[in-house]
Amino acid sequence: MPRFATVTHAATRFEAIPQQFVHKLDADEVLLTGWRKTGPDTYEVLARRPHAHSFYLSGNGSYDPLLFAETVRQLLPLLSHAAYGVPLGHQLIWDDFTYSMDVAALEAADSEIPVRLVVRCTAVTRRGSHASAIVLHAEAYQGSRRLGEARTRFTVHSAAVYRRLRGAYADAHRAMADAVLPGLPLPARRVGRVSPYDVVLSPDAATGRWQLCVDTGHPVLFDHPVDHVPGMLLLEAARQATQAVADPLPVVPMTMHTEFHRYVELDAPCWVEVEALPADPSGRCRVRVNMRQHGTVCFAADITVERAPGSFPLPVLAPREAAPALV
Q: Is the model's pLDDT at 327 over the cut of 80?
């Protein structure tokens, strides 16, 4: 993703962010703290970088890439509502999401220094008075340190359009009530977790494959009722699958390119498959994670990993074919 610059108007004060503008019911999960417009379709947003988080673990003070991903995710509803006229109650749908972290972001940093997000929106299409699709680009800094960048495309739909799109699945409360009961999770250590309640993969007899373990009572992943598996849960499952492949060496997902092809529904099993990809030009290991439901790939992620600070070098993973889909 190309880097970009924006003009910051120092005289423009940051505006407070209403909690509902980031689509979080739990105030402790709101990461964005202020925003301002800096030019046509450009913005500057401040965010918290907690030293510790109840779910997105930062370990010795390094920046958890998925905490960065969640920070960027909160930009989508914020700017939709605050800058592009999208009414509350409209639904945002991810088409794709890519992030890339800088190695410097793995170093411990003062959590009191806010993260500054430099944001540019392109390919903005409108339906009436509000945006209906946006491509969002963001770069993150903490002080003088560049943390990483992200790009995502998402679309916006009114409640009426979304109900027609989702059909029988449109009722979030009913969808959650019909959710498949989560299976026994993989050992937490194997997927880089401390608590078994944070594991989102269940073991399966097929090598290199797991069943998505969806606990609709999880306080972070299911902050509010939803009618499908949340996108951040899919990113976490991709991260955990990658760690399971690298086990026992701890790894960090430095880049992740994801595509959301179909909704992953709550009422049917979803199978998580991993295959190795050729190493990147720097020799870093890469894997592809596919998630299948009813025999169809609903979500795919290409992930590049670094060894976690203080761990031993990674082995070279030999490319292999993904296991056949279970239906």
A: no
